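INFO batch 0412 | record 1 of 1 | parsing
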Amino acid sequence: MRRIALFPLPVVLFPGTSMPLHIFEPRYRQMVARALEYDRRFGLIYHDPERLGAFGTEPGRVGTVAEISEFQILPDGRSLILVSGVERFRIEDGIESDTSYFEALVEGFHDDTPSDEEALIRRRQSSLALFSSVVERLSEEEAGEVDTLREADPSQEVSFHIAGRIRIDPGWQQALLELPMETLRLDRLDRLLSELLVRDLPGDEGQPGTPSA
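INFO prediction complete | emitting tokens
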């Protein structure tokens, strides 16, 4: 187990993807400053207070280790940062500390070992092709904003990379993050992408399930 600072937000960061964040609350300014002094990492964990109420560090909650790759301080002390998702973690126990932000003891949350690696590679190739088919249905302007994962390596994890390019409810994303097998995540993504293929894709960027830059 290891100790990690927690940043609860109503968004989901997937391993292998990036996300810009605006840091303005004093406690999270402190958290970022502490991270920059050490390993540049903290735990980003999905929490929507309107849906879930007050945040708690209950055992079993799953989040993603975020690593600060870019940092820009603003004149008033706020900052803009870019983080990259490193790996998933699961909370084992909360910590009472003298910090103003949340901390917890966590363990890495890893996929179950696949029984057939070659079959999994073929499965990834199929999902990547399906994602590309959906992108081809977008308008020229929309398609230009979407990374189609042309260079994705099917010998490596791809489900989080696909999921990170789809605009959809964060609760759905969190459920995907918690699945312990790549095949289960690809099944869920394929169902969503297949639904998009059988209907006209709207241009409204707020439409759930729309591929995104």
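INFO post-check: Residues 117-211 form one domain.
INFO record closed
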